[in-house]
Amino acid sequence: MGKYDEEGVVGEAVSPSSQSLSTSIFSLCIQIILEFEQPVVDIDRSKKTLADALLPKNPRFSSILEEDEKGVLRWKKTTVNIDDHLFIPEFPPGHESYDSLVNEYISNLCITPFNHCRPLWEFHLLNHKTTKAQATLIIKVHHAIGDGISLMSALFSCVTRADNPTIPPTFPAFRKFNFIEAKGFKGNYDFSIFKYFGKLWYVVLVLWYTMVDVMDGLLRMMGWKEDSKLPIRGPPGVENLPVTISSTEFPLVDIKQIKTCIGATVNDVLTGIIFCGIQRYLQICLSTGEEQSILDAYEKRSKPNDTVIKQMQNLRVTSLAMINMRVLARLKNSEEMVNETTEVMWGNQFGFLHLSIPLKNVKNSLDFVKRAKCIIDRRKMSLGIFAIPKILGSLGRLKGAQALAKCAYNTIASTTMAISNMIGPMEKIAIDQNIIKRFSFFVSGAPH
Asked: What is the mean pLDDT of residues 371-394?
């Protein structure tokens, strides 16, 4: 991180990737939604807890974007009034549940721009009961401040374990993918020739897949390749429209059972579930006639006819899976990530995988998980995940943030959907003794 002088005049130069996320082309924000078991009673104390945990540990939460005399965009230190960043809306009384009003508030919040005269973050406390929680806290942070790993490290520095506040929450370790071990190339062979040819074949595959993925990424950056036009894709300018929020839950024990059954990861299983849902949704949309609504077709659970099955096989549907690019064995705290000497740097350090969604009709839904695992394993073999961010970074340094933003916009807009997830704590957590029942996040401002 850069250093600030006493007057806050000298600050760290904003990286090209962070600049590209706040341009006239598009502007991305991260919405973190925390749902509490009980209403937040002592708001002033909770406000102080959050401010004391965030502001002293990371200068970006007390900085604004400002150009210096040379036209370089920098983080400039400023005085923070926490009351300027905390919003507590009041809804009309008399409602048994405020689900629709809370969802409408979040939807409108997504398209409300930040005041760039203040640091780019806000807290919105909705102390109203919904069917899922007694109170809801929305934390809105501009993506220029940092990516999901960065912001989660900051968030979890504010929380404690609900059962024992003196002990910090624990997180599962990150698992590294090893293709050689996964495919059986590593082991005790009677003849070393098998090892040699196995590794040689692996190198050939890596080079080939890297070339294919880099070319695919470049075509999408230039706007020369995109997915098929389907109902699931939004119209041009969809990033400026209000969002509709929906959620579902899957028992973790079932996820782990599927994971163990086919030797996959939790991400493989979740991706397979998403792929299955997307295929079924498209089957319903393409099978629906003018006289029939999508809801009616869904309720009938009718099987797609041969024409629809053949039509879907010719479609191109791609998901953009966001990947953390740090050398990370565990989730670091905010202070560690801000430290210049650490390898786990704060900021926007993410890549992405283009995952082709399989649309071939299958009888067993478990096959989607197996296909998702094969697709993800294949993408992990490629060095394109490292090459594409390097290309984008070089473009940003040579052509500036606007050119980088245009390529990033084209990359996102050329796909049908994005998939992003974060690890969570292994114990129930709380903020200032307010127990969090569940939390989720999503990105607004993307052309999806």
From this structure: 90
